[in-house]
Amino acid sequence: MKRRLTYIFFIVLLFGSLSSKAQNFTEYEVKAAYIFNFSKFIKWPSASFDNQASPYVLGIYGNDPFGSIIKKIIGNRKSNGRNWVVKYYSRPDQIKQCHILFISDIKPSELRKVLDHTSKLPILTVGDEINKFCQQGGEINFTPKNSGKRFEINNKEANRAGLSISSKLLMLSKIISTDEVKF
Amino acid sequence: MRIKLILYILLLLPIFSSAQDDFKKLVKTGDRYFNDEQYEDAAYFYLKADSIKPINADYSFNLAISLINIEDRKLEAIPYFEKSLKSRRNDEQFIRKELGTLYHQIFQFDKAIKHFTKYLNNAGRDDTFIIYCERMLETCNNAKKIFSKRKDYDIKPLPYPLLQHDTKNVFVTVDGQIIFFENKEGDIFKSEIKHGRFQEPTKLIKHEKLVNSNLVNISIDGQILYFSVFQKNNYDLYKSQLIGLTIQKPEEISGDINTKFNEFDLTISADGTIMFFSSDRPGGYGKSDIYVSNRLKNNEWGTPDNAGPEINTPFDERAPFLQASGKYLYFASQGHENIGGFDIFKSDKKDLTWSAPENVVYINTIYDDLSFSQTANGNLVIYSRPKDFEPEVHKLWSVNLSQNIPLTIVKGTIQAGTPLAPVKAKIKVYKQPEGDRMKYIYDPNPITGKYLLIFPPGKDYDMVVQADGFLPQLIHIKVPNQTYFHELFQEIRLYSITVANKKVGEKIEVENVFYDIYQTNLSDSLINKYKPEREKNYDHLLQMVEDIINTTDSIGIENINDIREAPRVSSNNQQESYDHLLSLIEDAISTTDSVSLALLDKQTVENEESSDIYFYSSNQMPHEYLEKMVFKGDTVFTKPRIETNEKDKENFVTKNYDFNYRNLKEDQKRLILRKTIYFDVNEVYIKTQYLYDIEQITDLLYDNPSLGIEIHGYADERGSAEYNKQLSQRRANEVYKKIQSDLIKSNRIIIEGHGEEDTGNADKSLSKSRRVDIIIFKPIIE
């Protein structure tokens, strides 16, 4: 009995120590969490949803760095009363109804095609630390670690796409404009 | 009980006289066998007699002598020796010596001490057993002390499925993920940790030359096994590679190691420079001693030296084990502060010598202890331990030491190609700035691409990675000067870069993930308030434990194991922590709290990823353009060093490519790719067959801001020279329009229309003159 108790005590210790270790999140867990929260600070035109209950569609273009994380983080959660759906794209013409398009690790020529395609649609394009993403017409770009602001936003481009981004989110980010005027 | 006995005696009273006769007969038979030294029979009759009527002190003495002469029944002699002390005719000194020895074996050290002390008090000056008894007295005193210390340790047998295996020896890889053990039959098994526990062991296939051999150690990554092989009437040291589940043909340890005497065990330092081994060659302090050998420049082992009187005693020393840090030497000895048989001792490195060995209290039994293995962080010790009272039966045990030896383990994978697949490679490691090479050449497992390196803290290293089909890569690793154990997961990925069907270069990606296991500076951060309350987990667990205890449900215990071993899988727990992450970010944004976000940023486990693209020179041999690196004793041609440390990358001055590429001289350009596009007569339209290649060239220029491009337009001889000049310029411009973009700065682009002045077209064929040459080059600037 005593032995078993000490055994159990050990289990508890181990269990405790492991769960404390799980406190550190990985890069893509945090990015997924940001993406989820973008939906709370950005308004899409109502026409981009079929109805009041239709879900947010997160598109992942090309390489998928998230793996199973994305489903765990946004899978069962709702924001603004809407569920989330994840779609995977490999060609620009596949992108139709989509609210957030996450783009990671992409060739520049392909990026141009994707951004050309999305510029007419109410889609929030999110770049994964892509060089000059916002300058080329992307809306939000995650910046590399330790670059001060966690992301940069091209608000003009977002407005053109019919999205309105909360001033709070804008305050936390570096503002980039397509015509190279910084403010 | 006593009433029963009296009843029996009363019943037996009428035949008491005959019982008396039987007793005498039995004792006499016993005596007869005893005198003939047939101890088993003697013991039988004495004991039978004793069951009728307790035998006297003299017979007890004979019985005790008989018993200690029978293997397995020695311990039964104790009460009879005690009894025989009552008769003055018996040799009291002899009895005390034997009793002391036996009490030691049943862990009654106080009684053993009493007998040995009395022996020594009565012993004459010339008594031959004084040394033995003094040694035993010391051993018992040690044992008493050491057994009382043992309760401070967390010692456990390794659970099912390892529990069923009788073992002889065991070795654990430095990361604690794999164990190799040998059983008494000489079969070698391997068991890996999956889902948090050791799996059912798999038997390895031994090479036929290893029939008479003992497994004596493994390399840090478990890819090489070391053996002492019995041949020509003595043991010699060998090594064998493990490929899959097959142990390959053994190779003799090179150099001056094996002799015609026995070489038993060996251990090699993590950097591959020092080996300790045990041998019973003459000239040592005792029969078997520990020797040390350094690896020479030619990679062979040098002439061994005795490890010295700090380690070796007049008794036997065996089974050295050098901890991965190289600072602690464990070994088995019958001398030193011993508690019986071989014991494991630990000695710390002090400059050039070793500290006085200490008994490793958590392992040693009063029997022979020769097995010891420890992970690199020092935390986990796994060993094969004799069972109490059955010392020939060994099982696997583990001790958790909660240690934290400052070392860095690099666990890496090397892959190449598209799609990525493990690649055959060699990794050499050089210490910086000295340029000393670590003596191991790490061969990543060709099937899995995995490799394992160990580094002491606070040094810089250069890794030279030579993968089949790629240029040698030079990777710089900075090992932090940490005070605790680090694990670094490294992934090396190699890709070929192909443009216009030509291999023009290669890309290397190095991803380092430092798992800083002991990062504790969370406490003062804002994130603390979002930490999930750990008590919740406990509640659930404690309730479950309580239920299990109430029902003593053994299956339930299994379930607990599952929770314990895969806490991350418990999705509730994970979801809960994601909830906290999400609300942390939401709160921070809605209060525009950039400090919280910055803190979160800081604590994110980020992959340090470095990547580098290197272009081949299309008109030079590799050694003409690769960098020459001179390490001590080695010259290597590699690509420029790639930095993997974030800070170093920041400090790394990026070359300034903001100049006009037109000013470059021809020898300042490395030609990477030449592509020719042909045109129809008097036409500037680019045929569709070239568009894909041009797109690839454009991407290449996007991806590599340092590359320059020359676009040379040509026209055939027909028509006026003036017109042809213009035509060639228009052709070049047409190509430029395809490539032009605001991401490719104009200073990188050189456009020229040469008209009819074609130097590259020797046979003056008209169709070959109507063309544009695209040349991609890399400026070579200091």
At the fourth CATH level, what is the homologous superfamily of the largest domain in chain B? TolB, C-terminal domain
Annotated CATH architecture of chain A: 3-Layer(aba) Sandwich
Which oligomeric form is depicted?
A: heterodimer
**CATH arch. level architecture of the largest domain in chain B:** 6 Propeller
The number of distinct structural domains of chain B comes to 4
Question: What is the CA-CA span between the terminal residues of chain A?
Answer: 70 Å
Computed CA radius of gyration of chain B, to the nearest angstrom: 39 Å
Annotate the secondary structure layout.
The complex is a heterodimer of chains A (183) and B (782).
Chain A: H1 2-21, H2 27-41, E1 42-43, E2 56-62, H3 69-74, E3 84-89, E4 100-104, H4 108-118, E5 124-128, E6 140-142, E7 151-153, H5 155-160, E8 164-165, H6 167-171, E9 174-175
Chain B: H1 2-12, H2 16-35, H3 39-52, H4 57-68, H5 77-84, H6 92-105, H7 109-122, H8 130-150, E1 154-157, E2 167-172, E3 178-183, E4 188-194, E5 197-198, E6 202-203, E7 213-218, E8 224-231, E9 234-243, E10 246-247, E11 251-252, E12 263-268, E13 274-279, E14 289-294, E15 305-306, E16 317-322, E17 328-333, E18 343-350, E19 353-354, E20 358-359, E21 373-374, E22 380-387, E23 390-400, E24 408-416, E25 421-422, E26 425-432, E27 437-442, E28 450-455, E29 460-467, E30 473-478, E31 486-499, E32 502-515, H9 535-551, H10 554-565, H11 571-590, H12 594-603, E33 608-615, H13 622-625, E34 627-631, E35 634-638, E36 642-643, H14 646-651, E37 669-678, H15 691-703, E38 708-713, H16 721-739, E39 749-753, H17 766-769, E40 771-779
Parallel strand pairs in B: 24-31, 30-36, 38-39
Antiparallel strand pairs in B: 1-23, 2-3, 3-4, 4-5, 4-6, 7-8, 8-9, 9-10, 9-11, 12-13, 13-14, 14-15, 16-17, 17-18, 18-19, 18-20, 21-22, 22-23, 24-25, 24-28, 26-27, 26-29, 29-30, 31-32, 32-33, 34-35, 37-40, 38-40
Helix pairs in contact in B: 2-3, 2-4, 3-4, 4-5, 5-6, 6-7, 6-8, 7-8, 9-10, 11-12
